[in-house]
Write a structure and sequence with these properties.
The protein is mainly β. Helices cover 0% and strands 61% of the residues. The relative contact order is 0.32.
């Protein structure tokens, strides 16, 4: 099993910044991609950003040039730097890790951290 623990959420005014962290522990061998998803009230969970073990990144269109995902492999931690936050960025942010072992892929989720952006 892989455990993911997020931190760094809270309340901020529009235009502000946050940095979220997600630390992975447990059976982490084989983790390739990690990422962040978010879920706003009454909406489905959506992808925000992902990063592979090779450093390739992918962003949802609305966060491009405002959010930056990065990864510290030595610390088994992925970060999401969020700048120029907007009220529509409000939601619970979940960390995700994909692990592949012997051809079997498993996806793990953190418990989520609340980000609230006031207008």
């Amino acid at each position: 099993q892989v455990q993911l623990v997020e931190s760094g959420g809270g309340l901020v005014q529009a235009g502000g910044s946050f940095r979220l962290s997600c630390a992975a522990s447990g059976s982490i061998f084989g983790i390739n991609a990690m990422g962040w998803h978010r879920q706003a009230p009454g909406k489905q969970r959506e992808l925000v950003a992902t990063i592979t073990s090779g450093g390739s990144t992918n962003y949802e269109n609305s966060v491009k040039e405002r959010f930056t995902i990065s990864r510290d492999s030595a610390k088994n931690t992925v970060y999401l730097k969020m700048d120029s936050l907007k009220p529509e960025d409000t939601g619970v942010y979940y960390c995700r890790a994909d692990r592949i072992r012997l051809g079997v892929k498993n996806t793990y989720w953190g418990q989520g951290t609340q980000v609230t952006v006031s207008s």
